[in-house]
Amino acid sequence: MALNLEKQLLFYGSYHDHPVNVAIHMLCVPLILMTAFLFGTNTSPLVPMPDWLIIPNLPSNLGTVACLIYAVLYILMEPVAGGILAPLMLAGTAYANHLTSTYGQTANYWALGLHVTSWIAQFVGHGVFEGRAPALMDNLVQAFFLAPFFVWMELLFLLGYRPELKSRLDKAVEKEVQRYRQSKRQSNGNIPNAKANGKAA
What we know:
Elements: H1 5-13, H2 19-40, H3 62-77, H4 79-103, H5 105-130, H6 140-158, H7 163-200
Helix pairs in contact: 1-6, 1-7, 2-3, 2-4, 2-5, 2-6, 3-4, 4-5
């Protein structure tokens, strides 16, 4: 997966054009990401580290390592936006480590409830409002990686960040959505035609 910001946002944006679906994702995607990191904090440290190198509430468990990987990739994709998001993700992961170390399984149960509910809400958003299957159906890895950054960029766009990029993406996404809808109409039109041809034969 190439770290081309505009290309990646276009891919994900073409699956998320309806404002209600976008709003659902802006709420649910961060919950899915942070609860996933929380699940990873239940593991033992993956790399032994000296005490002086250990940051409080950020041991080298799976949750922390996954957060660091996401942060680095986001910074490579867009240094400013990624650089702002990275410390927020690390702070959230530190809090997740605190929750699991303090509350144990109770934290996991709450996180699981939020995680599952957020997934259900997203599928409702796609089925009821977007009328299109989620991006993960076409590219699982790309969708899981892009979703949090897409939501973050949507928030930054609302705050006026990089309006020229926002304008280009809106136009490109609109073309992709129209192409998809036209293809879907043609596909649906072929079904009755095929049935009619079958009866005629």
